[in-house]
Amino acid sequence: MKKALVGIFGVLAVIGVVGVLSVQTTVGKGRFTVQSCVSEETADRVVNAAGQRGMEDMRMQVVYQLAKRSVVEITVKDSAGSGILWDLEDGIVIVSNRHLLMRDVKAEVLFGNGETFTADVIGYSQQYDLGFIKIPADAVTNSVLREIYEVVPDFYEVGTEEARAAFAQNYAEKRVLQMGASHFSTGTIHALQYMPLFNTVILETACFSKAGMSGGGVFGEDGKFLGLISGGDVPEDATRREAEITYSIPSALIAAEYEMMINDKLE
To answer: Whole-model pTM?
Structure first.
C-alpha cells in the first residue's frame, strides 16, 4: 500500500459534494495538449515577475514535467475528466472523481503518448468524491510504462484544528501547480478547512480551474501530490464553468480510502 460559495458547479445531492470540472464531450478521443488556463491578468503578473523569480520558475517547470506524466484523461460515456496515477505496483490504479466514474463500470483512459486503454471501476469512496479504476497489468504496454510517473503524495495531517493550523503556517501562500488532462494553471495555497458541502476537510487553492480538470491534481513546489481537484467557486454571473478558487481532496484522505477499499476486498 502506498506510502460564501457562489455558483458552485454540479452539486451531487446524493453524496453531498461538488462535482465540479468534468466536461461533456461528443467529439472523438481527446488529445493531451497542455495549455495555460490562467487569466490574462494572471499571465501578465507572471510575465512581469519572471525576471525576479528565475529559480522559482525553473523549479515549477520541473514540477510541471513530473505532473503531466502523472495525469491522464478519463472518458466515461459522454463525459470526460482527469485522473491521477495512484498505484503502479500491479497494473495501473488511477484515482478520479466518483461523480465521473459512477456513470459506468468501465472507463477509457488516454495517456500522454496517445495510447488508450479500458479500465475497470474497482471501487468508490463511501464518504468522499473519490473513485478508483484499474488497468490490468497484462494490458499495459512498455511504451506507456516508460512515459508515466506514480505520484508521491504529501500526507499532511487534516484531522484536527491543530494539524490544520500547522499546515496553514507551513504552506500558506506557497505556490502550487494544478494539472488536468488538457489544462494547467499555477497559484497559491489558500487554506485547509472543513467544508460542510463536501462533508470533509478541503484543500483550497487560489488557482484557476476549468471544465475537464476535475480529477486532476494539485502539486507543491517539491513536486509532491497535495490533493485531487473536486470542486470550485464560480462567480454567480459567470458564462463559463471556470473558477479562480479550487477545492481539492487532501492526499491523506485518498490514501485512507484506497487502503480501506483494498482491505475490504481482501476480507
So the answer is: 0.79
